[in-house]
Specification:
115 residues; mainly beta; 1 helix
Length: 115
Amino acid sequence: MGNYKEEQEKDDPTCDRLRLLNEQAPVAGTGATKEEDRAWISKLVGDTQSYNKVKADEGTVSYATCVMRSIRWPGAVTVSKMGKFTSVYVGYGLKRGDASFFPTEPPIVGEEPND
């Protein structure tokens, strides 16, 4: 029993669920070169202009929205704007590159005997 668990750990090592984006392993085959392979794609959308706040000494503010899309989990998206964020996942629960699960019909158990 111990050997099986060690083999499973080699094939699929455990890792912390909450990691920084740059700590996540890149997904092979997503970029033109190995350096371009990554686990997330980020994009700024909306109004990216910086505006001065009402009082000049308060700094600037931007009304852009940051969109983070997961390459490893197609359908996982996180959006952030002005310090607030939300995440949504719409997908089949399969990692990119994993084998799909399609159950097949079971074989015929037995036939009716002849009369």
